[in-house]
């Protein structure tokens, strides 16, 4: 049984540990690296989670199986475009193929609609076939646009988008 909840100000250590696990587990999935993240100080993790724990601009969600945290995802509003970017999406390898990822994304989609974000974007690395397939199942489509490259790791981030308003037409 998977449950989700929004991060609170008390979740600084949980956020740091799960994000570091994600970066260590899936180095080819993110623009950020474990090596850079492990050097961040406590204040930077605290400030990041505080910016997401209430309000209408950012939302971090944790997924739990029993009392174990097994997933993380966040949605950050882009003030200029009125869209929102899905970031940090990760579930524990033991929970892949379970509903955890879709529940996390579902929570963020509901919240996005509540706070007036109607267009979701994300970047996924071109080598990450599993994530691309997951997002396609959730209705996202690739625009083919390359958002960033990291020549040191031979990675490029590809843009995928989903217009939430279109869900009402399905
Ligand atoms: C991305 C992620 C959250 C998706 O969650 P998940 O539980 O694995 O997703 P699902 O199992 O529901 O969907 C993945 C689909 O890809 C398929 N798949 C598995 N490996 C694949 C591959 N190499 N290429 C293409 N498709 C693949 C799976 O069979 C599944 O399809 P199905 O439901 O038709 O069988 C999870 O895999 C994860 O945390 N990955 C590591 C971190 C990551 O990549 N984050 C995304 C950053 S943008």
TrEMBL record:
> Species name for this entry?
Novipirellula caenicola
User: What InterPro entries does the record tag this protein with?
Assistant: Acyl_CoA_acyltransferase, Bact_Acetyltransf, GNAT_dom
Q: Which Pfam families match?
A: Acetyltransf_1 (PF00583)
Q: Which UniProt keywords are given for this protein, alphabetically ordered?
A: Acyltransferase, Transferase
Record protein name field = N-acetyltransferase domain-containing protein
Record carries keyword Lipid biosynthesis: no
UniProt KW DNA-binding keyword:
no
- The N-acetyltransferase domain sits at 2-165
């Amino acid at each position: 049984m998977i449950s989700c909840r929004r991060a609170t100000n008390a979740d600084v250590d949980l956020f740091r540990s799960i994000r570091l696990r994600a970066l260590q587990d899936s180095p080819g999935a993110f623009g950020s690296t474990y090596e850079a993240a492990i050097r961040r100080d406590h204040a930077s993790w605290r400030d990041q989670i505080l910016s997401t724990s209430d309000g209408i601009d950012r939302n971090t969600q944790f997924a739990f199986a029993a009392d174990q945290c097994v997933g993380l995802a966040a949605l950050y509003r882009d003030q200029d475009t009125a869209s929102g970017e899905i970031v940090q999406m990760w579930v524990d390898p033991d929970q892949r193929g379970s509903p955890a990822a879709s529940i996390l994304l579902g929570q963020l989609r509901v919240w996005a609609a509540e706070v007036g974000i109607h267009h979701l974007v994300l970047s996924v690395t071109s080598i990450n076939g599993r994530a691309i397939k997951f997002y396609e199942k959730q209705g996202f489509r690739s625009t083919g646009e390359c958002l960033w490259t990291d020549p040191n790791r031979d990675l490029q981030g590809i843009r995928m988008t989903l217009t939430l308003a279109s869900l009402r037409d399905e």
